[in-house]
Amino acid sequence: MFETRTSTVPITKEMVKGAYRKVKANHGAAGVDKESLEAFEEDLLSNLYVLWNRLSSGSYFPKPLRSVSIPKSNGKRRTLGIPTVGDRIAQQVIKSYLEPRLEARFHNNSFGYRPLKSAHQAVEAVQENVRQYAWVLDLDIKSFFDEVDHELLMKALDRHVEEKWVKMYIRRWLETPVQQSDGTLIQKDGKGTPQGGVISPLLANLFLHYVLDMWITKHYPMVAFVRYADDVIIHCQSEEEAKQLLVAIRARLAECRLSLNEEKTKMVYCQDYRRVKKKNVGKKFDFLGFTFKPCSVASKKGGCRMFLGYGCAISQSAQTRITQEWAKLNWHRRSTLSIQEIANQVNPQMRGIIRYYGKFKLWELQRLMLHFEFRLVKWVLNKYRKFKNSQTMAYQWIKELKQSYPTMFYYWTVFKHV
Question: CA 224, CA 229: separation in Å to the nearest integer?
Answer without folding.
Answer: 16
